Amino acid sequence: MESRTFQVLEFPKILGALSGFATSEPGAAACLAIHPYDTLESVRRAGTLFEQGAAWVGESGFRMRAFPELGGIFPHLDSELAVLDQDALFALKILLDLAKDARESLAGFEGRDWEVLEKELFAYAWPQKTVSGIGRCLDAEGQIKDESSPNLMSVRQEIRAIHQRCTKRVKDFILQENLGAAMQDEFMTVSSDRYVLPIKANFKNKTKGIIHDYSQTGETCYFEPIFLVETNNKLQELKREERAEEYKVLQYLTGLVRQEQDEVRDAYDGLVTLDVLMAKVRLADAYSGRTIEVTEEGAPRLLKARHPLLALTDESVHPVNIELLDGQRAMIVSGGNAGGKTVCLKTVGLIGLMAFSGLPVPAAEGSSLPLWDDIFVIMGDEQSLEENVSTFTAQIQYLKRVWDKVDGHSLFILDEFGAGTDPTQGAALAQAVIDSLLEKRATAFTATHFPALKAYAMATKGVRAASVLFDPSTKKPLFRLAYDQVGASIALDVAREHGLPAAILERAEKYLLLDGSDTSAVLDRLNAMAVKKEAELDAIEDERIRIERKRANLEQKFEKERTKILKEVQSKAQDVVKQWKTERIGQKEARKKLHQARLRIEDIAPERKKEPVFSFSDIVPGKKVSYLAWNKSGTVLEINEKKKQAKVDIGGVAMWVKADHLGPADGPSRPVAQPTGTKAAAPGDLVIEVDLRGNRADEAISELERAMDAALRKGAGKLEIVHGRGTGALRREVHEFLKYYPAVENFSLAPEDRGGDGMTEVTLK
């Protein structure tokens, strides 16, 4: 794709805005280097990466921190003699700490199936040696720790011991020599790695010693007493030893980094990718953007689209629907100046570039674009004084240069093509160009004022006409498109709005009447009708949204009431089971009460989950049916003609159910022989499984409580809880809950062949 296309459609400005959301310099640089992908697979993968990244950021609350530019250290490591300095290693520590935090955050969502996100960011071996070595040798401020090596610790201990001795000797010296009045500061200081006393310059000859330096004002001199000379010499030797030991530590750490250079580079690249991804998420938040579907073929469809640059700076930008119908490959937009024709064309081109680059765009859900390999643009004043060409000549030269590249995977944007020459010939040329683009099966978006081209749009198959709308009374633009009609140019109204003298306007109107080609009255009427239609459509859409919201609120209210009643029934069922377990009530009474509770649950089952009932004659032994109250399938064992009931085996539990509580099951039926004396499976043999993976701890415990209630109602003897391995946090929460649940007899981890520490098996009382 030509760089000119990016400049004309202002794609670099979008990348500049994106880079402003990055937290690091390498991330910002990577944002500026983004370009459209070549294949549909790459575009879709980038879209999936954004969607998974946005979901992760929203759920985890993870926030990116700044990290330094480290691209230069990798070529430096190619030399075997190269040693990374303390600053470079500390920068690596910051980088790897951030990478570790990001990996751990994402690891907490292992059940969410975010494979693309994990592979793009963290599909590399972790540089454990480097992380451990740097963590052991550098502190939180980036300084080398004493514990980095035994020799370094020994040297530093000696240096600290010398400091303590010097401090004591200096204090004694000041008292003995009565130099308190001579001191500028109470304590000694260091100059050129030697302990010295800051004394007033006029006291420098009061005692023997060496003057090392003066302050800028000259009032203070840094004086080394004779008794400190030998100690300072020793200190110099120790400082040299300290630097040598520190260099050995740096060599050691550099060796670790060199051993795991590929892993460290991958970690760095992964963080840069993460920074770019987080910048995309922030960009989407800035203008409510999203990824849109990109297809191999098809008509472009942008719903409630806004020009991305305008959407970033002005929240009140009017959205517009830009779409071609099936079989259409060109759109011709007409209407008055300043009505938004050029913005409409630029919106299509810029959103296309962004979508193909994996960027979120300001368009509504349901939008889609075909993948264009090339986007060509003729827009604005192409005139070049340096090259001595007019606007029309420049347009023709560009068309000639790119024409052979245009094919069925191209988008061609023509804004006022042919406007720089005779209107009749320019319109004819524009029609011919669009005809040829249709033959090449390219997609074309055109803006025009030519009456002939407007008529062409209405009459040509495969071309859709559209008009920008204006307020019928004020002639101000509404920044909306009306389809399958053309619009007036209203040049005189625009000139009047911008203050052109009335005398000039009156003469222009007279000339227009004399010419006899004034169709403004008809087009004004079309515009008024279109505005009215759009207003009616808006009212219908608002009413639809209102009804959907009302329905959602009612459903939410119903669900709350249903959940409340269900919990009450479950609580009563648990009480019944506990009373039966403690032999306070008999088995017959317990079954009666549980049956009443089950009937109440059936009464509050959502209507939308009920399938159409079938007649009792459809229910025969061996037929698979669905028990609507539980949304479970079972097999009919026998029927009771008199009571219109069927005995159904559901997961090992046999129960009598009314025929109107049953519905057809999806699974195939199988004939069942029911010999005399056959008994249904005992409820105690029933095993219920609950899968808690992917839930937060509080959600998981709530789900587990519901599963326990259901198991007790059905008389199940065992419960299998799938919580996954992960970090083990969810498993600990589950076990803590089971310890104090009264209906649990015992629990343990499953055998390795049945899930190991990823599943807990529970035996119920």
Automatic annotation (TrEMBL):
Domain Smr: start-end pairs: 690-765
Gene Ontology molecular functions: ATP binding; ATP hydrolysis activity; ATP-dependent DNA damage sensor activity; endonuclease activity; mismatched DNA binding; ribosomal large subunit binding; rRNA binding
Organism: Pseudodesulfovibrio hydrargyri
Superkingdom, taxonomy of origin: Bacteria
UniProt keyword annotations, A-Z: ATP-binding, Coiled coil, DNA-binding, Endonuclease, Hydrolase, Nuclease, Nucleotide-binding, RNA-binding, rRNA-binding
EC number: 3.1.-.-, 3.6.4.-
Binding-site residues for ATP, renumbered to this chain: G335, G336, N337, A338, G339, G340, K341, T342
Protein name: Endonuclease MutS2
Protein's job: Endonuclease that is involved in the suppression of homologous recombination and thus may have a key role in the control of bacterial genetic diversity.
Coiled coil: 523-564
GO biological process: mismatch repair; negative regulation of DNA recombination; rescue of stalled ribosome
Alphabetized Pfam families for the sequence: MSSS, MutS_V, Smr
Family to which this protein belongs: Belongs to the DNA mismatch repair MutS family. MutS2 subfamily.
NCBIfam families: mutS2 (TIGR01069)
Record note on quaternary structure: Homodimer. Binds to stalled ribosomes, contacting rRNA.
PROSITE patterns, sorted: DNA_MISMATCH_REPAIR_2, SMR
